[in-house]
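Folds abound. Consider this:
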Amino acid sequence: MAKSGQARVPTTEQQRHLFDVIKAHRHPEKNTAIMQISFKLGLRAQEIALLQIKEVARLNSSGTDFKLLEVMSLPAAYTKGADAMGRSRTNYVRRTISFDVDTFDKVVRQIATLAIAGAEINPEDFYTPTKRHKGKSRDLPMVDRELRNALDDHLRLRLDKQGPLKPSDALFLTQKGIPYSSNTLQEHMALMLRGWAGIEKASSHSGRRSVITNIIHKQKKSVKVAQKIAGHVNPSTTLIYEEPPEELIGDALKDL
């Protein structure tokens, strides 16, 4: 089962149920496309929120028709920790600070000198620089038929309702007609998974965990393949997903 704090990986039956119940709610085309991207390409909620039409389709010169691309090229700016377009900015609060021994000794001497001189001391002046994640670009082949059908249905409906589109238009809009923020989309995806489909402990990360888990455990692909699809900079991050999914554990216990 998922470790505490990790999103649950839905079973195959739960995934089918999810897409069935989505059809019974408002905006089924958009919501199906969102969840297909999550469960077939493993994108984070922030990455889905930031997607533009040009990442999945090529519009004609008038913006009235399109052709789906074969490969989604996800810019590095969309990935975790990046502040693409200022739409998914997160407020980072320092919890810990690390120093090597030589740097720590130097900081202590600096503070002592300032204290003797009677200068005002601000602790933040001595914090080590924050390491900022620069993001990692990746190319994801859009080969799954259900994924392609969902994107096609969603974009056809957008054209019918809005008229001509631009390549830089957000792929997904809220009911207010504005692009999703990362937090808003996370909440919406969690609503579909837990509220509509009744999948306990599921979150916007469930689709991503499902993709990586299936690659490692069911398809028996290398961690390197899973790392490339996930866009993890460090393979140790991908190794977290080597924990067997709940579905496999359930199968093992079923016939005891």
Summary: The beta strands are 57-59, 66-68, 71-74, 138-141. The domain at 12-90+133-254 is CATH 1.10.443.10 (hpI Integrase; Chain A).
